[in-house]
From TrEMBL:
Keywords: Acetylation, DNA damage, DNA repair, DNA-binding, Glycosidase, Hydrolase, Lyase, Metal-binding, Multifunctional enzyme, Nucleus, Phosphoprotein, Zinc, Zinc-finger. It comes from Ovis ammon polii. PROSITE patterns: FPG_CAT, ZF_FPG_2. Involved in base excision repair of DNA damaged by oxidation or by mutagenic agents. Has DNA glycosylase activity towards 5-hydroxyuracil and other oxidized derivatives of cytosine with a preference for mismatched double-stranded DNA (DNA bubbles). Has low or no DNA glycosylase activity towards thymine glycol, 2-hydroxyadenine, hypoxanthine and 8-oxoguanine. Has AP (apurinic/apyrimidinic) lyase activity and introduces nicks in the DNA strand. Cleaves the DNA backbone by beta-delta elimination to generate a single-strand break at the site of the removed base with both 3'- and 5'-phosphates. This is Endonuclease 8-like 2.
């Protein structure tokens, strides 16, 4: 297995592709169907120890057309994690002797690729572990260096090939790949479903001049918050998605965080009980009050644009001179 430094080099090779969309796929992997990467956006890459992590987000248009995100199954890894954490918290002696260090991952994860889940709309990571001769090649394929026993000069076959919108491609050789549905490094204080979720830190982030709909998807403060939760919490708090947080005032920001936490917790509970979470604004044409809903792709300049639904009447836009403490009637 390549040591950490080599994996860091792979990380360095992959980094320029962050922010690009997969436009063509190839490779021999049977565990991960290479075509399932089609249209995904590479959003981040991290290296931890000897493992490389690549975060992919689905294309918004594909999601709305082909999937009903709320019917997606809960990620098994997440469930396992929750159960384990709960178990450890309530009774440390019940821990299994060997410990359960398995990384949440598996083929089943691909079923979730299309949609947001309560704790991870934006958190789908491909975990790559390299074999002894594992490697990543950029814009070229590995070639045979010598003939095999039968005298054939056969080039190695990549497990996965990803062609990106910027016209380059990555080829992965001799590696094991699995999906995981939590960030490789999530602090519980930024995890919206954790009891340790730090509201103060979240409120401070929201209070900046940035539109609140950008900050909500910032995984540093709202780990696990995906596009559905963003839309629903903003609607329930009656806040226009592009409102600069600095104009909203603390009570309204607190209400927004309350809705984020409540909606996510309800959703997770519903997943365990097999019920579907009810949305009021996400992918709707009318709000519950019967107003026409507006849909637009919103995101930071040059960043990933996410489809956003809001009701211009229930979520009026703030003007800069509006007093901060105004509550909508
Ligand atoms: Zn409305």
């Amino acid at each position: 297995m390549p040591e950490g430094p080599l994996v860091r080099k792979f990380h360095h090779l992959v980094s320029p592709f962050v922010g690009q969309q997969v436009v063509k796929t190839g490779g021999s992997s049977k565990k991960l169907n290479p075509t399932s990467f089609q249209s995904l956006w590479l959003q981040d890459t991290q290296v931890h120890g000897k493992k490389l992590f690549l975060r992919f987000d689905p294309d918004e248009e594909t999601v709305s057309l082909h999937n009903s995100p709320l019917s997606e199954p809960l990620r098994k890894g997440e469930q396992k994690d929750k159960a384990r954490n709960h178990q450890e918290a309530s009774d440390p002696s019940s821990r299994s002797p060997g410990g359960d260090s398995a990384v949440p991952s598996g083929d089943d994860g691909l079923q979730c690729m299309g949609g947001d889940t309560p704790a991870g709309g934006a958190e789908r990571w491909l975990q790559v572990s390299f074999g002894l001769f594992g490697s990543i090649w950029v814009n070229e394929f590995s070639r045979a260096k010598k003939a095999n026993k039968r005298g054939d000069w056969r080039d190695p076959i990549p497990r996965l090939v990803l062609h990106f919108s910027g016209s380059g491609f990555l080829a992965f050789y001799n590696c094991q790949m699995a999906w995981r549905f939590s960030s490789p490094v999530v602090s519980p204080t930024s995890d919206i479903l954790s009891e340790k979720f730090h509201r103060g830190q979240a409120l401070e982030a929201l209070g900046r001049e940035l539109p609140v709909c950008y900050t909500l998807l910032d995984q540093r403060y709202f780990s696990g918050l995906g596009n559905i939760i963003k839309n629903e919490a903003l609607f329930r708090a009656r806040i226009h998605p592009l409102s600069p947080g600095s104009l909203l005032g603390l009570p309204r920001l607190e209400a927004l965080v309350d809705h984020v936490v409540a909606f996510s917790a309800d959703w997770l509970q519903g997943k365990f009980q097999g019920t579907q979470q009810h949305t009021q604004i996400y992918q709707k044409e009318q709000c519950p009050a019967g107003h026409q809903v507006v849909k637009e792709s919103l995101g930071p300049p040059g960043g990933f644009q996410r489809l956003t639904w809001w009701c211009p009447q229930c979520q009026p836009r703030l003007s800069a001179d509006e007093p901060k403490q105004v509550q909508p009637s």
